[in-house]
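Exercise 7.
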Amino acid sequence: MRREITSEQDLRDLLGEPTQRALDKDRQTFTPEHRAWLAASPLCLVATSDATGRCDVSPKGDPAGFALVVDDTTLAIPERPGNRRADGFANILQNPHVGLLFLIPGRGDTLRVNGRATLLAEAPYAGRMEVKGHRPVVILEVAVEQVFFHCAKAFLRSRLWEPGTWDPDAVMSRAQIAKNIEHQDESLADIQAYYGQQYSEGLYRS
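Solution. The predicted structure, written as C-alpha cells, is:
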C-alpha cells in the first residue's frame, strides 16, 4: 500500500510537533559557539536549487576554518579548482537561497546555516582565503537568515565515525567507476594514474 503525504497537517499527524527546545535553537547571527565550530570545520555541504526547484548538493572542503566569518551575519566560502561544472553556482544565479551543513570529523552534531547567497569575483577579504598560493576566483558569500546546531542522531544511527564500520572497498574504486561509466575508451591504468598521486598534488592547481 502506498499512501502519499500531501499536506503539512498530514506530516504533523505522523511526526508530531517539534518541541519548543528544538524551535528555540534558531539564531539569526553567529554566536561565539557558532564561530568556534566554523573555525574547526574542514567540510561543508552546500545545497541549492534552480528556479524550477531542481536541486544540487556540493561538498566544499579545505583546511579547518576555510569558511570565513566576515561579520555576525555574513559567511564566505572559497571555491577551489574542480571539474568546472559549477552546478550549484548556476543554481544560485537563478535562486539565491542556500542551505549549508558544516561537519567536524568525529562529531555527530553539525552546524546548519541557511541564507541568501551572492557570488563574488573579488572581495576585500579574499586574501585571507588563500591556501597554498591559491586565491579563490569565486567566493560564495552568504547572508545568514538562520543558524543552529543539529543533533547527532543520524550520525549515531549510521555509525559514520566508528572506524570498525568503515569498508571503503565495499564498492569498486573511483577509477573503475570512471572506466565503466564515464571514460570507457580509456585504459584502467591511465585512469588509475589520473586518480593517483598527481590528483592529490593538483588539489590547488587550476
